[in-house]
Design a protein that fits this description.
This protein is mainly alpha-helical. It has one domain. It is built from 11 helices and 2 strands. Helix 2 runs antiparallel to helix 9, helix 4 crosses helix 8 and helix 6 packs antiparallel against helix 9.
Length: 314
C-alpha cells in the first residue's frame, strides 16, 4: 500500500482540462434541470384542475392531533425566524473565510440570496387561477422551505468535507420537518415546498458551477460523497417516492372515479411522503455536487499512505 502511494502517477493519468470543463457544465445542467422542474411542478399543480384539487386536498387533510407531533411541528415553525437564518448565513460565510476559501463563502452567499430572492419574486408574480373551488392567493413556492433548505445547503458547501455527510442528514431532517409543518399549518400546499427545494437546488448548482469554474485548471479527481448519507438518502427517497406515487394516485382516483375512497389524513400522509422524497432527492444531488475535488499530488512530493484516506481539499 505504501509503495503504491509513493509511486509517482504517470502524466497520462492526470485529468485533462476537457474533463474539468465537463464537470462545470454538468453542474450547470443540474441547475437548468432543477429550474425546469420548478416550471413543471407549477404547471402540473397550479395550472391544472386535477393538480390543484389534489394539492389542496392534501393540505386540508392535515388533521394531526398527536400532542408530540403537533409540538415538534409548531416549534419548528416558530423557531425558523429571519434573525436565526441570517445568523446561520453569516456563520457560513465566516467559515468559508476562516478556511481561506473565499470562493465557497461567495458561492454560499449567491446560493442563499439567489434562492430566497427568486422565491419571493415567483410568489409575488405568478398567477394562481381558481380551478379547484378553493380561492386563495398564490403561495408558490414556500418561503419557509426555501430559507431552511438554502441555509442547510450553504452549510454543506462551506463546512469541511469530513462532516458534510452528518450535516446533510441533520439538515435534511430539519428541512423535512419545516416543509411538512407548513403544509400542516395550511400555510402551503405540498407543491409549494417541492418547488422551493428545486429553486434551492437550481441556485446551489449555479453556486457549485462558479466554484468549479474557478478551479477548472486544478488537476485531480472528484471526491466521493459520504457513503452513509447517500445510502440513507437513496433508501428514504426510493421508499417515499413509491409511497407518494401510490398514495397520490389513490387520492386522484378518489377524486375522479371513486368518491370517498381515501380520507383526508391519508391524503396528507401521501403528500408528506412526496415532500420527504423531494427532500431526500435534492439533498442527495447536492451532497454529490458539493463533494469537492481531490487535487493530484505533484510527482516530486510522494504522499504517505496515511494521507490517502480522504480528499486533500474540498
Amino acid at each position: 500500500m505504501t509503495a503504491l502511494a509513493s509511486r509517482p502517477a504517470p502524466a497520462a493519468e492526470a485529468p485533462s482540462p476537457r474533463r474539468g470543463v465537463s464537470h462545470v457544465l454538468a453542474h450547470a445542467l443540474v441547475g437548468v434541470l432543477a429550474a425546469l422542474g420548478v416550471a413543471a411542478v407549477y404547471y402540473a399543480c397550479v395550472r391544472t384542475p386535477l393538480g390543484q384539487t389534489i394539492d389542496t386536498l392534501v393540505m386540508r387533510g392535515a388533521d394531526v392531533q398527536h400532542p408530540r407531533v403537533v409540538q415538534v411541528l409548531d416549534r419548528a415553525l416558530n423557531g425558523t425566524t429571519l434573525v436565526s437564518l441570517v445568523a446561520i448565513c453569516l456563520a457560513a460565510a465566516a467559515i468559508g473565510v476562516v478556511r481561506r476559501r473565499a470562493d465557497l463563502a461567495f458561492a454560499a452567499a449567491v446560493l442563499v440570496l439567489g434562492a430566497n430572492a427568486s422565491t419571493r419574486l415567483l410568489k409575488t408574480h405568478l398567477a394562481r387561477p381558481d380551478l379547484d373551488g378553493f380561492p386563495a392567493p398564490n403561495s408558490f413556492p414556500s418561503g419557509h422551505t426555501t430559507a431552511a433548505a438554502s441555509v442547510a445547503f450553504a452549510l454543506i458547501l462551506v463546512l469541511p468535507f469530513a462532516i458534510r455527510g452528518t450535516v446533510a442528514l441533520i439538515g435534511a431532517a430539519y428541512v423535512t420537518i419545516i416543509a411538512v409543518a407548513t403544509v400542516w399549518a395550511e400555510w402551503h400546499r405540498p407543491s409549494d415546498t417541492v418547488a422551493a427545494l428545486l429553486v434551492v437546488l437550481a441556485w446551489s448548482a449555479l453556486a457549485s458551477t462558479i466554484v468549479r469554474a474557478r478551479r477548472v485548471r486544478i488537476t485531480g479527481v472528484t471526491a466521493r460523497p459520504n457513503r452513509l448519507a447517500m445510502l440513507l438518502f437513496t433508501v428514504t427517497g426510493a421508499i417515499s417516492s413509491v409511497a407518494a406515487l401510490l398514495g397520490l394516485g389513490a387520492v386522484a382516483l378518489s377524486e375522479r372515479v371513486v368518491p370517498d375512497l381515501v380520507s383526508g389524513r391519508f391524503a396528507f400522509a401521501a403528500g408528506t411522503a412526496a415532500v420527504t422524497a423531494a427532500v431526500a432527492g435534492t439533498f442527495a444531488v447536492w451532497v454529490r455536487l458539493a463533494a469537492g475535488d481531490q487535487p493530484s499530488t505533484p510527482d516530486a512530493a510522494p504522499v504517505p499512505a496515511s494521507a490517502q484516506s480522504g480528499p486533500l481539499t474540498d
